[in-house]
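Renewal narrative, Specific Aim 1. Our central claim is that a sequence can be written position by position from structural information alone. The example that follows is taken directly from our test logs and has not been curated for this report. It begins with the structure tokens describing the chain, in the order in which they were read.
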């Protein structure tokens, strides 16, 4: 194995670390809900609103991050966003008022979230043409590892010290790891056999926006992202509401992450063989089913069954989007197209946690919230069935013109 080939795997390793740390910190935020409710007197609506702001910032800035990555490469984009993640999480050590939570988590952590997918996965798509889906799935395993490890670490730190110290330690660790990862993703292999996909291959952004497929993918992202953003934020406290202690509730979060590893690897491998449309369907079916099941659960132990199916769908859906965009539009404007699709997703993702928190505060239950999430996921599945290759549409337009 040549050293040049090894360098491509350094990129994979760095991208995996970015995914693990960034999303692990996002998942761990839900662990702090109860203690902040008790000590600060803040409602779940307010706590959810700060996470919604972070998701909105992620979506707004993902387009910019994608464009900067297309033009300048990943190193400095990831360096800046990594520093913001560390500052945002570590700065919550000093929390005294809600506005500080909105600034630190909503803005700074939101900036960190903005680049974790669009920069890392665009870079992977560029360096791995033939194994794009498989390598994307491997990188997204990092997300699952973070989902498993960081909430458990946060729970342990809160128990050993206090919530403020837990925030500070997590912030410092995040900053250090993300800065190292940024340098790895920024590695440039030089051997000709390892050159990235030719950036002239594919559609320009302005041309992609004129296609039905572009807007359908945006709508699909909007439909499933509320579930992917809301469940990680609220499932921990929902588990405690049903009767689990903090340790078992954290295990539910980790079980979702463990199942999502299978989803990422399976779906990542399937995309290269069956294409994005069928891979999307394989993800959506267990998502819809698991959300309906979650609505019906009244015994906490059944949450582990939910975690098995939801986790698979969760992991698969986070894996399928980038390779599907490359399949439909090529690599010329992959970063900015991916960023735009993510933006539409985060509009739904920003509303989801806030809506769930508000429904809980008004009704004392998440039942209506889970019903809404299931309905949106079903709409997403229907939209996936409508997807067709762009070449088919072009051929049909040509025949119609004749």
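The sequence written for that structure reads:
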């Amino acid at each position: 194995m040549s050293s040049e080939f090894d360098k491509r795997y350094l990129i994979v390793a760095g991208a995996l670390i970015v995914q693990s740390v960034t999303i692990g910190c996002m998942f761990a935020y839900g662990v702090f809900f109860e203690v902040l409710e008790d000590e600060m007197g803040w409602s779940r609506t307010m706590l959810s609103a700060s996470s919604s702001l972070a998701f909105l910032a992620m979506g707004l800035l993902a387009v910019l991050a994608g464009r900067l990555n297309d033009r300048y490469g990943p190193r400095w984009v990831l360096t800046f966003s990594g520093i913001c993640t560390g500052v945002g999480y570590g700065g919550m050590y000093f929390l005294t008022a809600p506005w500080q939570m909105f600034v630190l988590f909503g803005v700074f952590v939101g900036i960190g979230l903005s680049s974790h997918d669009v920069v890392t996965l665009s870079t992977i798509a560029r360096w791995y043409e033939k194994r794009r889906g498989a390598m994307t799935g491997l990188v997204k395993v990092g997300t699952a590892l973070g989902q498993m490890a960081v909430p458990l670490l946060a729970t342990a730190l809160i128990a050993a010290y206090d919530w403020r110290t837990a925030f500070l330690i997590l912030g410092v660790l995040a900053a250090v790891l993300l800065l190292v990862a940024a340098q790895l993703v920024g590695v440039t292999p030089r051997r000709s056999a390892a050159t990235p996909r030719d950036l002239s291959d594919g559609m320009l952004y302005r041309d992609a926006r004129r296609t039905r497929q572009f807007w359908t993918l945006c709508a699909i992202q909007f439909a499933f992202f509320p579930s992917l953003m809301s469940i990680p934020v609220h499932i921990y406290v929902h588990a405690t509401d049903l009767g689990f202690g903090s340790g078992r509730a954290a295990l539910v979060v980790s079980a979702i992450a463990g199942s999502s590893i299978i989803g990422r690897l399976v779906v990542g491998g399937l995309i290269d063989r069956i294409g994005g449309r069928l891979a999307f369907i394989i993800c959506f079916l267990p998502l819809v089913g698991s959300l309906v099941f979650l609505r019906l659960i009244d015994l906490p132990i059944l949450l582990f069954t939910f975690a098995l199916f939801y986790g698979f769908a969760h992991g698969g859906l986070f894996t399928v989007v980038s390779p599907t965009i490359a399949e439909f539009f090529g690599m010329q404007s992959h970063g900015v197209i991916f960023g735009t699709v993510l933006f539409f997703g985060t509009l739904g993702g920003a509303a989801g946690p806030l809506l769930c928190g508000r429904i809980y505060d008004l009704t004392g239950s998440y039942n209506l919230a889970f019903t809404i999430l299931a309905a949106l996921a079903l709409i997403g599945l229907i939209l996936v069935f409508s997807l067709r290759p762009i070449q088919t549409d072009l051929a049909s337009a040509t025949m119609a013109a004749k």
